[in-house]
Write a structure and sequence with these properties.
The complex is a heterotrimer of chains A (291), B (793) and C (187).
Chain A: E1 7-9, H1 14-24, E2 28-31, H2 37-42, E3 50-53, E4 63-65, E5 71-74, H3 79-83, H4 88-91, H5 93-98, H6 113-119, H7 125-133, E6 136-141, E7 144-149, H8 150-153, E8 154-156, E9 159-160, E10 167-173, E11 179-187, E12 197-206, E13 209-218, E14 225-226, H9 228-232, H10 241-254, H11 265-290
Parallel strand pairs in A: 1-3, 2-3
Antiparallel strand pairs in A: 4-5, 5-10, 6-7, 6-10, 8-9, 11-12, 12-13, 13-14
Helix pairs in contact in A: 6-7, 10-11
Chain B: H1 20-23, E1 40-46, E2 52-58, H2 60-63, E3 68-73, H3 74-79, E4 84-86, E5 92-94, E6 100-101, E7 107-113, H4 116-125, E8 127-132, H5 139-142, E9 161-168, H6 170-178, E10 182-193, E11 202-208, E12 213-218, H7 223-234, E13 241-244, H8 260-272, E14 276-279, H9 282-288, E15 291-303, E16 309-319, E17 348-356, E18 363-364, H10 373-391, H11 395-402, E19 411-412, E20 418-419, H12 424-435, H13 437-449, E21 453-462, E22 474-475, E23 478-479, E24 482-488, E25 494-498, H14 507-519, E26 526-529, H15 547-574, E27 581-584, E28 587-590, E29 593-599, H16 600-609, E30 620-625, E31 634-643, E32 650-660, H17 667-686, E33 691-692, E34 698-699, E35 718-721, H18 739-755, H19 770-779
Parallel strand pairs in B: 1-14, 12-13, 15-18, 16-17, 25-26, 32-35
Antiparallel strand pairs in B: 1-7, 2-6, 2-8, 3-7, 4-5, 9-17, 10-15, 11-12, 11-14, 15-16, 19-20, 21-31, 22-23, 24-25, 24-30, 27-28, 28-29, 31-32, 33-34
Helix pairs in contact in B: 10-18, 14-15, 15-16, 17-18
Chain C: E1 19-25, E2 28-34, H1 40-47, E3 66-69, E4 72-75, E5 88-90, H2 103-110, H3 120-133, H4 139-145, H5 157-173, H6 180-186
Parallel strand pairs in C: 1-5
Antiparallel strand pairs in C: 1-2, 3-4, 3-5
Helix pairs in contact in C: 2-5
The chains are: A alpha+beta (291), B alpha+beta (793), C alpha+beta (187).
Chain lengths: 291, 793, 187
């Protein structure tokens, strides 16, 4: 309940923040939403020597679509901003489906999308969504900026490829090649629980043909799982029952869950398969309604 | 002119609560809200291991931290004879570990510092060297050949058995089984659960050297028991100990036992001559304080083919953790487990029961259990459901065949209890009507054809509330009466103090309603106080739903004593003899001239200004109530559910509760208690559990793992009432606080099991988490025990 | 506060570094020196002596510590006091005006939305934030908005009724607007 002592800085610019991280020499942590970091510090699972609080840095709370369709989420965009954004249901359906399921309503007012991805919790929802969307993280360091595809971003449970002196300033979702469709389903025993299993699906459609697909899995591996083979199996075809069942099977096979008090590995794989099927069948029904 | 009882807030008024006025303003006075001058803060370092010898403790790092004032170890406490303390069940419990640690989370070192942050820093700086020992994590391991003896500190303990107990008629039961047409059986584990009020336990001990008086502000549901225990443990005289229990953020039985933290804070205050505050964190609360349940139950029911139950056999193996520390009536080792089946007219029954030590937190009797009655009634209704199914009988019909009849009270049960009154069939009828029983059964069949799984579960029970009569009930030898003291002031306003202690039940509101009922003084004119042993009359506290039955009765009795004296004053004021006086609410009047009367307020005034000759002035009295029997409310809970066959997730479609708790003092508050209890029932049925891996590591020691339902998961409840007054209670009331927690879980579990009927599953142990329901359904097998922490499959 | 007396640590070298922050609490400007590690909940309770905000867990689950931070509900146990520099915090003590209870407080009392009272301040502040955003919530809306606040006593049903009671009262009291006709139908 009581963190150990640390130094605290609240810079006003990204450059200052990066300089503080550099000087911190690996002993500093970034404080954005703090809804994952502070709980760890309160239990003394984490005891950084320095906290760099980026909440005073202006112009980071945005989420917006560029003219070319690229979607950008700033480092301080809170889960609640995405949850309450009315247009996202249409333009970013996977994000809109996942947003209400992250943590609980109060945590969502502080926690950030980018911070959650950087936390790299295998049971984090946003990393799966980013995998499904083929997104990237833009990191800025003393040497400048780099764009890291999210598939390369997470290197293990709670580990990313960010250098100690880099700050993740934006998450980017590339412009779609077709019309976006997608969903997110999560089996949690109650609001605020970590996922027993979660599935993020993103499709891009041209007419009724799938031109791009991505599937990310939450909570069924030592880090977020990219069910690439399952997603690929949908590309170039139409949504129909056999193809959906095949994708669901591939997704289940791609997951590497552990048996624990949330359920057996077999059960979790079954949930992955069930959720992939449900999301895709719902999208198929929605397609048929429009047609 | 008599006053309108509802208007003055008497019985039956849904009076809005007095205590709310401070709570809604954030002006409650919980233990952690209290600051005393010079106060220090204590944190506890707990054992990471379930069973280990302590080789050494190095506290030098803690002492070196600026702001640390005192570091206490078991060795220090042993030098003062305080390393061990007696429990409320005649066992002993370590205050701070000396030789061994016996459960993960056990208290090892205390650090007292200027603020809790520094105290925590101090704990982190202590180095303890442990030598791990093989842990025992369930009764099966406790009783195994060659199992290590956990309580090797006790001279005559050579195994891990806490007790071996039986009750009932073995021979009669055996004969009943010999005559049976069919025998049904049931075996289940009621998992370890924890009351987990949102507020954790804590104390502020303040020993004042100048007066030699010890004051302890404490989260306790039973301040007088604590005072007696502290006098024993700390060897301080009883009159120099003051226990103050202020506002409590929930209790549910968690705040009855004496905890090491309390004792440690007291010693620290004595040594430092400064107030010492200890507020445990949620992990400390979940991992070390009084849990509930963790009982293995099995039994058989001897049945006649027309559905009549001829006899019941039950056996329980209970897991008590490392110390037998429960607060329960001392004569009954497994509490009131033998109240099982009390609502059914069963001629013969026999219960055997064993308790075991394990390397887990001590406890078992807590969490709104009415002394193990939650386990009893859950087993009862699971057994009843199975029996009805085995016979191919309708669930409601089977119960009706066996219910104790309305005209059969008082009824002696096969286990020797005397149930007082009830209209069981009527409650069942109302429940079935409200849930739409016949229609639902049809709907269920239709749905099945479409692959949908619907189920309905019934749970009916009567339970013993209001411990209890002095012949049979005591804790540590102290009889379980309760008390009330009432002083009416000159203006007719009054102050009432009782030996109970509300943790949210609304006593400040409801006790005044009883006085209003007896005396016609408006409830708002009566201030109610509880919890300070310097001022409150001796009582055994509030738990096991005993307060309305016992303390409430004492309130009624003391008010009647006041009325008896006021009658004499009235006679004096009206210048007639007492025999010519009659009473209507709030007023005495001359029988032959009803217009001639005096109000109760006028009598109160006269007690100070115009007493009859020879009468002692003042208008106050007290009452200590030794209840003649327990009270026996009845409940019928029915729930309908639908299971998603692909995920095992189940949703409650409709939940109906019919409660008969006799006369309701405040219907709004009674309903609040029922809804709270139903939510605990839903929580246990669906998601709540504490479990351990093979090393004794606890899963469920924080709110990430110990799942409490939120407003989103919790279903809505439809409540109905029946009123069968208690024949022996002064205002006809029965207990109610725990009924829904006791009877509720079976309604949910029976509903899920009903939905799974035909799939080859006889039992799924709680919690009925989606993966467990799914496994049972798809594999056609029972699911036993708590969720395994890790499996290899 | 008085400048007549303030105790100083006996050994200056043992002094820990603190940060001076200025925040508005229930409308009042406060300036305090805090260690960076001090949690906001503890600043509120021990520092500012506003004990209506409670702490009930150590894993950011229970919500008993909920306060409004620039009008939005946050779990004050999972924020640092230093993060309130230049910001506004509303606690339960700031709900009532000098003369009146907030309709939410009235609703909780009238509908028996509390028993032990420990979760209540957090519940009411979450409810306040909900009603500011959605003055006419459904029961589901209320349950969803409060799903970050745990209660062990009430079973939530009366809490929901309390919030809906308050919503109705607040709509009645709202200044006349174009949507008055719709509101008249709804209430």
């Amino acid at each position: 309940m009581y963190p150990s002592r640390f130094r605290y800085e609240a810079p006003d610019t990204v450059e200052e923040a990066i300089e503080l991280l550099r000087l911190g020499d690996g002993e500093a942590k970034v404080l954005a939403g703090g809804q994952s970091l502070l709980p760890m510090m309160k239990l003394r699972f984490a005891s950084p020597a320095l906290l760099v609080d980026i909440n005073n840095i202006p112009d980071l709370t945005y989420h917006r679509a560029d003219a070319d369709g690229t979607f950008r989420i700033g480092a301080l965009c809170r889960h609640a901003h995405l949850e309450k954004s009315k247009d996202l249901g249409e333009t970013q359906p996977t994000i809109a489906a996942a947003a209400p399921l992250v943590a609980d309503p109060i945590v969502r007012t502080r926690g950030t999308f980018v911070g959650s991805v950087c936390h790299a919790d295998p049971q984090g929802d946003w990393a799966s969504v980013m995998i499904a969307l083929g997104g990237s993280v833009i990191a800025q360091g003393p040497g400048g900026r780099r764009t890291i595809p999210v598939a390369d971003f997470v290197s293990g449970p709670f580990q990313t490829v960010l250098s100690y002196d880099e700050l993740a300033i934006e998450a980017v979702v590339p412009a779609p090649e077709g019309i976006r469709a997608g969903g997110y389903l999560k089996l949690e025993r109650r609001v605020g629980d970590f996922a027993t299993a979660g599935v993020a699906v993103s499709l891009e459609l041209s007419g009724s043909s799938v031109v791009r697909a991505g599937i990310g899995l939450t909570g069924v591996g030592s880090s977020t799982i990219n069910a690439a083979e399952a997603a690929l199996s949908l590309v170039g075809g139409h949504l129909e029952a056999d193809g959906i069942a095949h994708a669901a099977e591939l997704a289940a096979a791609a997951s590497q869950p552990r048996s624990d008090h949330r359920g057996s590995a077999a059960y979790k794989r079954h949930i992955v398969s069930t959720f992939v099927t449900r999301i895709l069948m719902n999208l198929r029904s929605a397609q048929q309604e429009v047609a | 002119m008599t006053v309108d009882e509802i208007k003055i807030g008497g019985l039956g008024a849904s009076r809005r609560r007095v205590e709310d006025n401070r709570f809604i303003r954030g002006a409650g006075n919980y233990v952690d809200d209290i600051t005393l001058p010079g106060m220090l803060h204590m944190e506890i370092l707990r054992s990471p291991l379930a069973h280990a010898r302590i080789k050494s403790i190095d506290v030098s790092g803690a002492w070196a931290i600026p702001g640390v004032r005192l570091v206490m170890t078991g060795e220090m406490m042993a030098a003062r004879n305080l390393a061990w303390m007696p429990t409320l069940s005649y066992d002993t419990q370590a205050v701070l570990a000396t030789d061994k640690v016996r459960f993960q989370g056990q208290e090892v070192v205390c650090v007292i510092a200027d603020d809790p942050y520094i105290a925590k820093d101090g704990c982190e700086a202590v180095i303890v060297d442990y030598e791990p020992l093989p842990p025992i994590v369930n009764p099966e391991q406790s009783m195994a050949e060659g199992a290590p003896v956990i309580r090797d500190d006790k001279e005559n303990q050579h195994d891990n058995v806490v007790f071996d107990w039986e009750v009932g008629d073995k021979d009669g039961t055996d004969r009943a089984f010999a005559d049976a047409d069919l025998v049904s059986d049931m075996e289940l584990h009621y998992p370890r659960s924890h009351p987990s009020p949102i507020e954790t336990c804590g104390s502020i001990a303040d020993f004042d050297r100048s007066t030699s008086k010890l004051t302890v502000y404490m989260t306790t549901q039973a301040p007088h028991i604590i005072r007696a225990a502290v006098a024993l443990v700390a060897e301080l005289p009883e009159h120099m100990i003051r226990i103050v229990s202020p506002d409590l953020g929930g209790g549910f039985g968690n705040k009855v036992p004496v905890y090491p933290g309390y004792v440690a804070s007291i010693l620290a205050s004595i040594l430092l001559e400064r107030p010492v505050k200890w507020i445990e964190d949620k992990t400390g609360n979940l991992i070390s304080t009084g849990f509930g349940r963790d009982v293995y139950l099995r039994g058989q029911m001897a049945l006649r083919k027309d559905g009549k139950i001829l006899g019941v056999r039950m056996h329980t193996d209970s897991d008590h953790g490392a110390f037998f520390s429960d607060a329960q009536p001392s004569k009954f080792k497994i509490g009131l487990m033998h109240s099982a089946f009390a609502c059914y007219d069963i001629p013969a029954a026999h219960l055997t029961s064993r308790g075991f030590y394990t390397n887990k937190a001590p406890g078992g009797v807590a969490y709104r259990c009415s002394f193990r009655v939650t386990e009893a009634m859950f087993f009862q209704e699971r057994m009843v459901q199975a029996a009805a199914d085995d016979l191919g009988m309708d669930q409601a019909e089977f119960r009706r065949v066996n219910f104790v009849r309305d005209d059969d009270f008082p009824h002696r049960t096969a286990f020797g209890f005397l149930t007082d009154s009830g209209q069981y069939g009527k409650c069942l009828d109302i429940g079935l009507e409200a849930i739409g029983y016949e229609n639902f059964l049809k709907e269920k069949e239709e749905a099945k054809k479409n692959g949908r799984l619907l189920g309905i579960g019934i749970s009916t029970m009567t339970e013993p509330l209001g411990a209890g009569n002095s012949r049979e009930y005591d804790i540590l030898g102290i009889k379980m009466f309760d008390s009330a003291e009432l002083r009416v002031h000159m203006s007719g306003k009054a102050i009432l103090r009782t030996g109970a202690k509300s943790q949210g039940q609304g006593h400040e509101t409801t006790w005044a309603q009883i006085v209003a009922h007896e005396l016609g003084i408006p409830a708002e004119d009566i201030v109610v106080e509880e919890g300070d042993t310097d001022t409150a009359p001796f009582g055994m506290g509030t738990y096991a739903s005993r307060s309305t039955p016992v303390a409430g009765a004492a309130v009624s009795m003391v008010a009647r004593k006041i009325r008896a004296k006021a009658r004499k004053i009235a006679a004096h004021l009206l210048e007639v003899s007492e025999e010519d006086i009659d009473w209507e609410l709030g007023r005495f009047f001359v029988r032959s001239s009803p217009d001639l009367g005096v109000t109760i307020q006028e009598c109160a005034n006269a007690a100070y200004t115009n007493m009859p000759d020879g009468m002692e002035p003042g208008l106050e009295n007290n009452a200590y109530y030794d209840p003649p029997n327990l009270t026996w409310p009845f409940a019928c809970y029915i729930s309908t559910v639908e299971i998603d066959p692909l995920t095992g997730v189940w949703d409650v479609l409709h939940m109906v509760a019919v409660d008969d708790c006799g006369v309701r003092i405040n219907p709004m508050i009674v309903e609040g208690q029922i809804m709270g209890g139903l939510t605990e029932a839903y929580a246990m049925a669906s998601m709540q559990f504490i479990t351990f891996d093979e090393e004794g590591n606890c899963v469920g020691s924080n709110y990430m793992d110990y799942l409490l339902p939120t407003a989103w998961e919790t279903p809505g409840f439809e409540l109905h009432e029946v009123v069968t007054p208690c024949p022996h209670h002064p205002i006809g009331a029965k207990g109610i606080g725990e009924c829904a927690t006791v009877g509720g879980p079976a309604a949910f579990v029976n509903a899920v099991m009903d939905a799974l009927k035909g799939s080859g599953v006889r039992n799924i142990d709680m919690p009925l988490l989606p993966d467990r329901v799914h496994a049972a359904l798809t594999e056609g097998r029972d699911i036993s025990g708590a969720p395994p922490v890790r499996t290899d499959s | 506060m008085t400048s007549l007396f303030a105790e100083v640590a006996p050994d200056p070298s043992s002094e820990v570094s603190v940060r001076r922050i200025t925040l508005k609490v229930n409308g009042e400007q406060r300036t305090v020196d805090v260690e960076p590690r001090l949690l906001l909940a503890h600043l509120i309770r021990q520092g500012l002596k506003l004990t209506g905000t409670h702490t009930g867990c150590d894993t950011t689950n229970c919500g008993a510590c909920t306060v409004l931070y620039d009008g939005l509900p946050v779990k004050s146990c999972t924020m640092l006091a230093v993060q309130t520099d230049g910001h506004e915090v509303t606690t339960v003590e700031g709900l009532a005006s000098a003369s009146e209870l907030h309709p939410i407080q009235e609703g909780f009392k009238d509908e028996h939305g509390l028993q032990c009272g420990f979760c209540t301040p957090g519940m009411m502040l979450s409810a306040k934030a909900l009603l500011e955003e959605n003055p006419d919530p459904t029961e589901d809306d209320v349950r969803w908005a409060l799903s970050g606040n745990l209660c062990r006593c009430t079973g939530y049903q009366n809490i929901v009724k309390a919030v809906l009671w308050a919503a109705a009262k607040m709509r009645d009291q709202a200044p006349a607007s174009d949507t008055e006709a719709e509101e008249g139908e709804a209430s």
